[in-house]
Design a protein that fits this description.
It contains 17 helices and 16 strands. It has 434 residues and is an alpha/beta fold. The structure holds N-(iminomethyl)-L-glutamic acid and fe (iii) ion (FE). N-(iminomethyl)-L-glutamic acid binds next to helix 4.
Length: 434
């Protein structure tokens, strides 16, 4: 017998259906919205997503259908968070306080905080502790409606710690959401290679990459190209080698300094160029002509207390395929909340709510090369669905800092239901007890 689930009575069903290409320009505003919709799920896949009468008629021909009543709320694909540093050890609270007192990102690194502090922590951590942390974080992502998470290494940097992080990602994958692993060996130059960065690059390319590929521990390779990290020349070397070895490419590009990394990402056929806070008109034009996804991470600008967000309007107007992600990490973006990222995208980068939703679902799926199976609610795709406690999709970014996710479904299985608040007062309960 097949396993059937009907999500009925959706006031707004956002299908995100459309051609199998990333959304650009006006297409970003097309949510494939169906008023009064329903979704029929069979064995974890979408059988139908459309007008309630049609979908319910199909379901009516079946026996043993489990029903979920969406109560006129918004039903949409789960968020695809295409950029996270999932495995990272403890929060960096000293950095946070130093920054609040006026220190900048680079001063903090020089004082022994920053990425190196997380590297020290990850190297020293027991695998089971890292795994428990990653699982706890994943639960938080799920509570905020994310059903697929890209997860980078990059806080280990030596052989043992990078493998430890990637093995944690593999262990947590599928429990309950999918993780897509990325090797970010080129995050920064570790202290032991401070005087010989070329040797570090050579070691990553010749030793680490082939082994990681052979063991299928990462699908993507990523490099942080910026001041204090890797130069454009080093990044090109690393990415060229990574492509040879069989990785898909991602680049941390134009975050603090303009380096030319975004254009290099386009030139090398990278899947995505991420950050882009310092991107200029030429970068926007290049991304507009390129299949490379422009992934914006406004959480890091917010948390660092900076003002310069990525030029989202310029990117959209130039035809770039814009995606949004959390950049979940302990230094610049400690959040698991895609809805909050949408609030920032709208309020601070002037994306429209519809553009932000496309960027966080179907374009996120393109940014992890999974658009054939996730990112929209279309027949044959994986049934990754969220139900939000709002009647209008524009409320998703509008109510900021509030978690409106009521239910998350992964491959047809309900993996999260919002908890209940006890409404009776302590006084009333005491009276009941008497
Ligand atoms: O994407 N910028 C490089 N990597 C991270 C920050 C890492 C950290 O501070 O720990 C980012 O923002
Ligand atoms: Fe990042």
């Amino acid at each position: 017998m097949s396993d059937l689930l009907l999500i009925r009575n959706a006031g707004q069903l956002l299908t995100l259906r459309g051609p199998e290409v990333p959304r650009r320009g006006d297409a970003l505003s097309d949510l494939g919205l169906i008023r009064d919709g329903a979704v029929l799920i069979r064995n974890g896949s979408i059988e139908a997503a459309g007008p309630a009468d049609e979908v319910e008629r199909l379901a009516g021909e079946e026996r043993d259908v489990t029903e979920i009543d969406a109560r006129r709320r918004v039903v949409m694909p789960g968020f695809v968070d295409s950029h996270t540093h999932l495995v990272h050890g403890p929060p960096r609270l000293l950095d946070y306080e130093m920054r609040l007192r006026g220190a900048d990102y680079h001063q903090i690194s020089e004082a022994g905080g920053g990425i190196l502090a997380s590297v020290k922590a990850v190297r020293g951590a027991a695998p089971e502790d890292l795994e428990a942390q990653a699982r706890a974080a994943v639960r938080n992502f799920v509570r905020h409606g994310t059903t697929t998470i890209e997860a980078k290494s990059g806080y280990g940097l030596d052989e043992t710690a990078e493998f430890k992080a990637l093995v944690v990602v593999a262990a947590v994958d599928g429990q309950p959401v999918d993780l897509i692993p990325t090797y970010l060996g080129a995050h920064i130059i570790p202290a032991e290679y401070k005087d010989d960065p070329d040797a570090y690059i050579q070691w990553m390319c010749e030793e680490m990459m082939p082994r990681i590929r052979r063991q299928r521990l990462a699908a993507f390779a990523d490099v942080y190209c910026d001041r204090g990290a890797f130069t454009i020349h080093q990044a090109r070397q690393y990415l060229t080698w990574a492509r040879e070895v069989g990785f898909e490419l991602k680049v941390h590009a134009e975050q603090f300094e303009h380096t030319g990394a975004a254009r290099m990402a386009c030139e090398l056929g990278a899947t995505s160029a991420d950050h882009l806070e310092q991107a200029d008109a030429e970068d926007a034009a290049a991304l507009g002509r390129s299949p490379t996804i422009a992934t914006l991470l406004p959480g890091s600008v917010f948390h660092l207390g900076l003002d310069r967000y990525a030029p989202a309007r310029m990117l959209v107007e130039n035809g770039a395929a814009v995606a949004l992600a959390t950049d979940f990490n302990p230094g610049t973006s400690p959040t698991c909340s895609m809805p909050f990222i949408l609030s920032l995208a709208c309020t601070r980068m002037r994306m429209s709510p519809a553009e932000a939703i496309s960027a966080a679902t179907i374009n996120g799926a393109h940014a992890v090369r999974r658009a054939e199976s996730i990112g929209s609610l279309e027949p044959g795709k994986q049934a990754d669905v969220v139900l939000l406690n709002v009647k209008d999709y524009r409320e998703i970014p509008y109510w900021f800092g509030v978690n409106l996710v009521e239910m998350a479904v992964k491959r047809g299985v309900v993996v999260y239901r919002q908890g209940e608040v006890v409404e009776k007062s302590a006084k009333e309960r005491a009276a009941d007890a008497r």
